[in-house]
Design brief:
The chain has eleven helices and twelve strands. It is α/β, with parallel strands linked by helices and 302 residues long. The strands form three sheets. It has an eight-stranded mixed beta sheet. α3 packs across α6 (137-150) and α5 runs parallel beside α6 (137-150). It starts with a helix and ends with a strand.
Length: 302
């Protein structure tokens, strides 16, 4: 069983806990000092349409206390505006040593929700550093509570917009993996343009990832799955390394006209097996109970 487990992790590109492979065939090399340093701030631009709407940010007393006692888990960086890091901030190797105390490979989770996956992965892979980007304060409070309960030392949370953060805060080839599990699907047709995984965002992730690094994605929205395939499969910077096929309707639909998918032409798309280290969160469980199919993606930077 141990041999099978190691082989599966080798195929997925994740290091086994307690180790980090330097063999290029087994995954991306850790970023070099030269790769980690980029002089000067990057060009700053707000996303045209934010991929989130903060409907309520009021915390109850318990959540307020969690924020106040978060300590080093809750990362603070200079901001240009709320949720938008100042372009002068760059997560260089020097900054990473200040924050994590090391230069272990960095995994960024975009949208950590209640922190279930973040807590599980960071407690299991102690030889990796984790950074969660989340804007919703209630979710951040839950995440902090999970991390503290497990005594996790290698995870940090930043309340920031992912588009802005990837635009300016990351040196080239400085990220080991990016995880985006169940991003907001923006189901109404008029809101599809707000979806995070878009032609504008993909180059930012590609620039930040190490060569051979993975972008792991999951959604329970079939229309978003089609968009992900359209955007990612056509990107010259990524290779779809899925191993199973799924069928999707070749027409985009919204919240009020999903029935159009039934009679629409279908296409086969290559997708990934479920990422073994993605746990079943409460959010995913609700989707499964509602009868929604889960779509997994694994894209490797070329």
């Amino acid at each position: 069983r141990r041999v099978q487990r190691l082989q599966m992790e080798k195929e997925q590109g994740l290091p086994h806990p307690g180790t980090y492979r330097s063999n290029k065939e087994d995954g991306p090399e850790p970023p070099s000092q030269k790769d980690m340093e980029v002089k000067g701030a990057r060009e700053f631009s707000f996303p045209k349409r934010p991929s989130f709407v903060l409907r309520s940010s009021k915390l109850d007393e318990r959540e307020e206390r969690i924020f106040q006692n978060a300590g080093k888990i809750l990362l603070k960086v200079p901001e240009k505006e709320r949720f938008h890091p100042d372009p002068s901030f760059l997560l260089t190797s020097f900054k990473r040593r200040e924050i994590w105390g090391n230069l272990n490979p960095l995994v960024i989770e975009i949208g950590s929700g209640q922190g279930e996956e973040l807590a599980f992965a960071s407690s299991r892979f102690k030889n990796l550093d984790f950074l969660a980007l989340e804007v919703f304060p209630q979710g951040i409070a839950h995440s902090i509570r999970h991390l503290k309960a497990l005594g996790v030392e290698n995870a940090r949370i930043l309340q920031a917009d992912a588009f802005s953060f990837f635009s300016t805060a990351l040196p080239d080839q400085s990220v080991f993996e990016v995880w985006t599990f169940f991003p907001d699907p923006w189901p109404k047709t008029k809101h599809h343009k707000r979806r995070l995984i878009s032609p504008d965002f993909v180059p930012l992730v590609a620039r930040a990832l190490c060569p051979g690094g993975h972008w792991r994605i999951a959604t329970d929205d079939s229309d978003y799955a089609l968009q992900i395939h359209e955007v990612m499969d056509s990107s010259p910077r990524f290779e779809n390394i899925g191993s199973v096929y799924t069928t999707l309707a070749l027409v985009h639909v919204g919240k009020g006209n999903r029935d159009l998918q039934a009679g629409a032409p279908k296409g086969k798309f290559l997708q990934a097996e479920r990422f073994e280290d993605r746990i079943l969160t409460s959010f995913e469980k609700k989707g499964i109970e509602a009868g929604r199919e889960i779509y997994d993606f694994d894209y490797k930077k070329i």
